[in-house]
Amino acid sequence: MITSKKLKVLLFTLSLTLFTAHSAKAASYTVVSGDSLFTISKTFNTTVNSIKADNNLSGDIIKSGQVLNVPAIKYTVKSGDTLYLIAKRYGISLYSLRKANNYWKDYIYVGQTLLIPGVNTTTNAATLTSQTSKGVIPYTKADLDLLARLIHAEAQGQSYKTQVAVGAVVINRVQSSAWPNTIKDVIYQRVNGYYQFTPVLNGWINKPASDTARQAALDALIGIDPTNGAEFYFDDSTKNTWLWSKPVALRVDNMIFSY
Questions:
Q1: Calpha distance 191→185 (Å, rounded)
Q2: Are 157 and 146 spatial neighbours (Cβ–Cβ below 8 Å)?
Q3: Using CA atoms, how far apart are residues 202 and 199, in angstroms rounded to an integer?
Q4: Alpha-carbon span 72 to 22, nearest angstrom
Q5: Using one digit for the tens of pLDDT, what is the confidence trace for 183-208?
Q6: Under a CB-based contact definition with an 8 Å cutoff, are residues 71 and 29 in contact?
Q7: How far is CA 115 from CA 75, 127, 189, 248, in A?
Q8: What is the per-residue burial (b if ≥16 Cβ within 10 Å, else e) of 104-126?
Q9: 249: left (phi > 0), else alpha (psi -120 to 50), else beta?
Q10: Are 108 and 142 in contact (CB under 8 A)?
Q11: Residue 83 burial (CB < 10 Å; 0-12/13-18/19+)?
């Protein structure tokens, strides 16, 4: 038997649960040129009739700038996020995420709000955001931070492509039998008494990473590799003939990436 006191506690707990779970119809979408109820229904994994019912529409005509209630939740971008990782975390396509937000740039910023389309009403966003996506190699938060710090030290101020490429070289070494098999061991490796990466020698590896470097590290960890397999990189001002003798995989900014 449920007593009056227990019933109050139960109802209070239920109300908290309902508050925590994000409603699938809690988000607003602004219609853009080229949209139709059909294309919007596909983007948000619903039906035309459901959209019409949720928005009290009597017909099928919509216009640019019109705001519609849609099945989606709002997600606030956090440090380390990428569009790819967010889409993967919620089990949607990258295209759907872009289309739901009419956002076609690659760069996102901390604090930015994105619509996650078609999320089930019982989905708890806090649970989803706590999940960790696996990369092409196993890694910990410490590995991610270390890789981001190396990228920041080596390529600060250079293009995003260069920063991802620096991270990719480390990942490629971890995946190769010729090098150590962890991010930490690769970055701190010494060969014939010499550190492989200058920031370890001069201490710059200990400087905090920027959000951009962290995002570049995440992209490298999910397998994005502008170098297509390079295991070395160096500044184009170097006089080291051995490095210059290696096949060049990529030239970008003032960096050379080689096999």
A1: 12
A2: no
A3: 5
A4: 8
A5: 999 999 999 999 999 999 999 999 99
A6: no
A7: 6, 17, 43, 41
A8: eeeebeeeeebbbbbbeeebebe
A9: alpha
A10: no
A11: buried
